[in-house]
Every structure is written in C-alpha cells, then in structure tokens.
Amino acid sequence: MWDTKRQIIWLVAGVSFGTFIVYNDAKDEFGRFDATVFVFWEIILLAIIVTLFWLYSRKKT
C-alpha cells in the first residue's frame, strides 16, 4: 500500500508531465493550439492515471 506522500508526489508529477506532453501534442503543424485535441488526450491521460492509481492503491489481501 502506498503512503500518502508518495501518492501525492506521483499524482502531481504524472499529471504535470503528462499535461505538458499533451499540450505540445495539441499544436498543429502551424503551431496553433487545438483545444479539442488537448481535451481528448487529457481525458485519456487522466483515465490512465486514475486506473493505475486504483490498481496500485487497493489492498492486497
């Protein structure tokens, strides 16, 4: 089971780094930001983080 400090560190780092990557990926070839692409990939990123958080946080009995 994860301790609270480690959970917070991994969540903040994962969301921050992932959002940075998604933001850069949401720009088209002319450098314009596409909000729909950003929202789509951000939802995918958050779903992955939530799933992994749930898998690693559940009790092993």
Characteristic terms for this protein:
mainly alpha; 74% helix
N-C termini distance? 11 Å
* Poorly predicted ranges: none
How does the helix and strand content classify structurally? mainly alpha
| Major beta-sheet overview | none
Coarse shape: elongated
Count of domains: 1
**SSE string, helix = H, strand = E?**
HH
Give the C-alpha Rg: 15 Å
The level of helicity is over 70%
SS elements, strand count: 0
Mean pLDDT: 88
Q: Provide a count of the helices.
A: 2
Tell me the strand percentage band.
under 5%
Could you walk me through the main structural features you see in this protein, from its secondary elements to its overall organization?
This protein is an all-alpha fold and 61 residues long. The protein is built from 2 helices and no strands. The radius of gyration is 15 Å and the shape is elongated. It starts with a helix and ends with a helix. The mean pLDDT is 88.
How would you summarize the topology of this molecule?
Blueprint: H1 4-25, H2 35-57
Quick take:
The chain is mainly α and 61 residues long. The chain has one domain (4-57). It is built from two helices and no strands.
